């Protein structure tokens, strides 16, 4: 038989247990909701083969580092090309990545995309491109929470971003 104090303790224990279970359920619901809202905010779908799908296109972010030419070759082997950034939204998509090759090169003093289109909008960091010799390829890199472009020698080794349009 229980004494009066044991009965009070048991009731308190049951109340505390119910309270903790409810808190866990609410926390789990909050995590699920935040995950769903993040997916909506980024409009990002991860595909099984390492590609990511957003409104702008399909992207592959490499996990290894290569020079610009070898990076582009890898993209071509994947049926894609180094990414061409056409908008601020697309540029913002890459703000979590640090120093990745994009499909922008300096040809005879003019920066052009790999599809030979002229650079119309740009996201160069302050002082970039700096015009130094042999810095003819571009990376996008995070800097203080935003993504900006920097010119580098094409022989430097960085990760890269492949882009292909959804088929």
Protein model, in words:
It is a single chain. The protein is of the alpha+beta class and 167 residues long. It has two domains: 1-42; 45-164, Roll (Mannose-Binding Protein A, Chain A). It has helices at residues 4-42, 68-77, 88-93; strands at 45-46, 51-53, 58-61, 81-82, 100-107, 110-113, 137-143, 146-152, 159-164. Strands 1, 2, 3, 4, 5, 6, 7, 8 and 9 form a nine-stranded mixed sheet that branches. A hairpin with a 4-residue loop joins strand 1 and strand 2 (51-53). It is elongated, with a radius of gyration of 25 Å.
What are the main properties of this structure?
9 strands, C-type_lectin-like, 33% helix, alpha+beta, Mannose-Binding Protein A, Chain A, transmembrane, disulfide bond, 167 residues, membrane, CD209-like_CTLD, 2 domains, nine-stranded mixed beta sheet
Overall CATH class of the largest domain: Alpha Beta
Structural class: alpha+beta
Largest sheet: 9 strands, mixed
Count of discrete structural domains: 2
CATH architecture of the largest domain: Roll
> Could you spell the SSE succession in H and E letters?
HEEEHEHEEEEE
Relative strand content? 25-35%
Pfam family, one: Lectin_C
Keywords: Disulfide bond, Lectin, Membrane, Transmembrane, Transmembrane helix
Transmembrane segments: 16-34
GO molecular function, one term: carbohydrate binding
């Amino acid at each position: 038989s229980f004494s009066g104090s044991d009965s009070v303790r048991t009731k308190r224990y049951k109340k505390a247990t119910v309270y903790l279970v409810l808190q866990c359920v609410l926390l789990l619901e909050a995590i699920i909701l935040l995950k769903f809202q993040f997916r909506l905010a980024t409009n990002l779908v991860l595909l099984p083969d390492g590609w990511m799908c957003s409104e702008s296109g399909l992207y592959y972010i490499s996990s290894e580092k290569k020079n610009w030419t070898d990076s582009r070759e890898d993209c071509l082997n994947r049926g894609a090309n180094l990414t061409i950034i056409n908008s601020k939204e697309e540029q913002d998509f890459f703000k979590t990545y640090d120093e990745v090759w994009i499909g922008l090169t300096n040809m005879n003093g003019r920066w052009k995309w790999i599809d030979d289109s002229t650079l119309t909008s740009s996201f160069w960091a302050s002082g970039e491109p700096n015009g130094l010799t042999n810095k003819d390829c571009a990376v996008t890199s995070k800097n203080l929470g935003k993504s900006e472009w920097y010119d580098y020698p094409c022989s430097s080794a960085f990760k890269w971003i492949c882009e292909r349009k959804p088929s």
